[in-house]
Design brief:
By secondary structure, the chain is an all-alpha fold. The chain has three helices and no strands. It has one domain. The protein has helices at 4-38, 56-83, 86-91.
Length: 92
Amino acid sequence: GCSGSDITVIFLSQAAIIGFIGSVVGVILGYSISSLVNQIPFEIAGLYTLPIHYRYQDFILAIAFGISTTLIAGFLPARKASKIDPVVIIRG
């Protein structure tokens, strides 16, 4: 008994949740791996490690990009699902 707009909201909210969780996990893994790489001895042109600078703006941008990407990717299936008649799905 959901309307088409309700189905769209459900799809997009699930996409946002998946995007947020995936982005946070990705940022944590990326930070962890880059911290490990930064500890590897590296000598070229007077550098002893790779110069990696962490800025909180980059982490926020990565999370925002991850969420927006999953919302865009979830929009087309949400729109398609909102136009399908449930009776057609039940009948097969």
